[in-house]
Amino acid sequence: MYQRNPDSTLSQSSPRSLSPRGKDGFFARVYALVRRIPRGKVLTYGQVAALLGEARWARTVGWALRACASRSVPCHRVLGGRGRCSPGYGSGHPERQRARLEAEGVRFRLGGTVDLAAYGWLGPPRAARRSRMHGSA
DNA sequence: AGGTTGACTGGGG
DNA sequence: TCCCCAGCCAACC
Predict the structure, then answer these.
(1) Residue A119 is part of which domain span?
(2) What is the CATH number of the domain that holds A109?
(3) Is the Cβ atom of A9 within 7 Å of strand C at any atom?
């Protein structure tokens, strides 16, 4: 099984990353958003960055997830822009990411990519609800 | 203070 | 479709 020590990653793996300074806790906001991705749905690094209002910070999102502060953050639901698993997932085991996603019902194409149009999350409900409920009034 | 790194992206071959 | 290159930008050293 591929369970890493949640505790060790919390206390010693990335001590400084847990107190992100750039932009009032960008890391924390990344974790908060990723935690909301529903089972069986995915998001790309670029989309996470965009949803947080920092469209060009895709690489920084990667930094945040590398630290993967808590086991409660389903970081396996974040893929590269081409719907591919992250090369560095689980310290170089993207297959683990795939296994987790498949366990949630996400199917992969022959090339090892996920159909983002089919499995992509639309984002926080609130954003979608706002335009629909309030409309113009 | 400055160079390097990286779980990214988009474009081109 | 896959691989490589240039641009990207904060974190890291």
Answers:
(1) 6-133
(2) 1.10.10.10
(3) no
